Structure formats: C-alpha cells, structure tokens
C-alpha cells in the first residue's frame, strides 16, 4: 500500500473512505500562506489564495500553476454560486465579491449596520442562492494578511446575504473567531469553525453545528467536535454527511455524530480543503506553503 502511513485510522469506517494506494501529491510549493481552494469542474482547474503574497493561483492538470489574479486584495476563502461564478472573501478591502463571467468584480457586501466588516474569511452558497460567510478579525490584526485596523463591528459574526436584494443579516453573533463553514448535504445543518485558539490557546478550537430552520434561521447551536491538534480552519462535508476539517497535522474526518474516525497526515499545517475532480473524489489541500491533493473513496457534497 503506497504511502499507507499518511492515513491514521480511528474507526474501521474510515478505511472505506480512503484509497490506501493513493499517495499525497504536492501540486505546488512556493506560497506564504495557501488558503481558500475552489474547484471549477467546467474549466478543469483549481483556484486558491496565497494571502500574504497578494495573489490568487490557478492549477490545471495540463498546464500546472499560473497566476490567476494579482494583486488580490489579500483574498482568502472562495466558493462558487449556483450560476458557477466565483465568490471571494477579501481581507484587504474587507468585503465579499463576485467575479462575473466577463471578469468584472461586483461587491456583494462590505458594511453592516453602518460599519465596515472586519475581514470576511470563508464563504459558502446555499441551494437557494443565499451566501453565508464568516467575519473574524484576522485580516485587520496586522499588515501581513490585510491592513491593520480597529474593528468597526462589536462582534465577529456569521452572516447571510441575499444577493438578489442585498439584505445582510447576522445569523450568529457569539463566536470568538468564526472561520470555515459548510452545510450538511441536505442543508439542515450549518457547521462553523471557531479558530480563536490560533492566537490564544485558552480560546476555542472547535466546530459548532446549528440547525437550519425556516429556510434561513439558525438554532440549537452546539459544539460538534474538537480539534486535537491545532485549530479548525476550512471545512467541507462529503455526500454521506461526514465532515472533513483542516488541522495542524493534516485533515481530520468526523462522522455525522462528531466522532473522529480518521486523519490524513500532511507535512505542513493545513488551512483549507475542497473536493474536486470530475467525480468530486479528489481532495485538494491548502497547507501553509504548498497545495496537495489525494484521491479518496467518497465524493464531496458541495456544488456546483
């Protein structure tokens, strides 16, 4: 079994979710902090952010790596909307944007109740088209991943945006540093990482779960799981409802009840991940200076 040592089995079910003969491939090395991978199946390409270097990079199997956008406004997390357009969180401009088909940029959100957003971090799009994103302060804490500034929001929130009307609502306001987020496959649960332990080990390093009710309200917030090595940053779910999270020692996989069932070891601290490839069974991993990929035996739930 090639590179079987990259897998850490905590539950026999995890063996059915991995391909033990599939090794960990390093697709690129040379980032300062790789983040926000997003897969475009129609273009057979992966985009991601290299935040401190102010650029977004593109990888294709045919051509390798090239610069997609520079400067990038310290862009962090990305996703696609249901029309296939790129949705991005920008630390430098403290806004959420959409890249149109012609390459122009539309600002979707940059203020809430009269104040600038902190530094939008990660984003997902629900099947009804609403855009959900987190807004910690990482991008304004220094000039390394944005521009140092004082927060204009009293809290660090999870937001829901209706792009049709522009209505922006804070759906959760009690996070310390909200980070990655992902819906369960049936969209009845929203998972949100709290990564506050990145700067203070006494603060949260867990992922919370919320029930989605009445289409767009969150209730019954609870701790879903703890990360035992590092912090949770980017997260994704697969079609069976398992949750895959970044961590200091690699990628951690939790079953729908929040039990750790396995890990994929990665040589560098993982910031984010996404499923991609034609069958959505290739896990792309943004890890500090590099981007890796590994084939797994499940498919990601995120669409398109």
From TrEMBL:
Domain SMP-30/Gluconolactonase/LRE-like region: 33-288
Superkingdom: Bacteria
Keywords: Hydrolase, Metal-binding, Zinc
CC cofactor note: Binds 1 divalent metal cation per subunit.
Active site: 233 (proton donor/acceptor)
Species this chain originates from: Rhizobium sophorae
One of the Pfam families matching this protein, by short name: SGL
Identification of the protein by name: SMP-30/gluconolactonase/LRE family protein
Matches recorded under Gene3D superfamilies: TolB, C-terminal domain
Cofactors: Zn(2+)
GO molecular function: hydrolase activity; metal ion binding
Binding site for a divalent metal cation: 35, 179, 233
Residues that bind substrate: 121, 145
């Amino acid at each position: 079994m090639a590179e079987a040592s990259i897998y850490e089995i905590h539950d026999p079910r995890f063996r059915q979710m991995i391909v033990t003969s599939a090794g960990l491939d390093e697709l690129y090395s040379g980032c300062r902090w790789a983040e926000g991978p997003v897969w475009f199946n129609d273009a057979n390409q992966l985009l991601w952010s290299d935040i401190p270097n102010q650029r977004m990079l593109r990888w294709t199997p045919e051509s390798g790596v090239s610069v997609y956008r520079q400067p990038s406004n310290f862009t962090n997390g990305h996703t696609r909307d249901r029309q296939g357009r790129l949705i991005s969180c920008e630390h430098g401009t403290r806004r959420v944007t959409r890249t149109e088909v012609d390459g122009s940029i539309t600002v979707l959100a940059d203020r809430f109740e009269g104040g600038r957003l902190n530094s939008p971090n990660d984003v997902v799009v629900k099947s009804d088209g609403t855009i959900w994103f987190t807004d910690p302060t990482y991008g304004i804490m220094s000039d390394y991943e944005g521009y140092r500034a004082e927060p204009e929001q009293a809290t660090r929130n999870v937001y829901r945006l209706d792009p049709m009307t522009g209505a922006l609502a804070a759906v959760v306001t009690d996070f310390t540093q909200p980070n990655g987020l992902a819906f369960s496959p049936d969209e009845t649960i929203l998972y949100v990482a709290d990564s506050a332990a990145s700067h203070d080990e006494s603060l949260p390093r867990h992922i919370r779960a919320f029930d989605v009710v009445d289409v767009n309200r969150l209730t019954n917030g609870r701790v879903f799981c703890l990360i035992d090595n590092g912090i949770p940053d980017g997260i994704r779910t697969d079609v069976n409802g398992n949750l895959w999270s970044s961590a200091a020692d690699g990628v951690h996989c939790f079953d729908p009840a929040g039990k750790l069932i396995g890990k994929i070891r990665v040589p560098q601290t993982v910031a984010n991940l996404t499923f991609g490839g034609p069958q959505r069974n290739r896990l792309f991993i943004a890890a500090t200076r590099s981007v890796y990929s590994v084939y797994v035996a499940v498919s990601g739930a995120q669409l398109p």
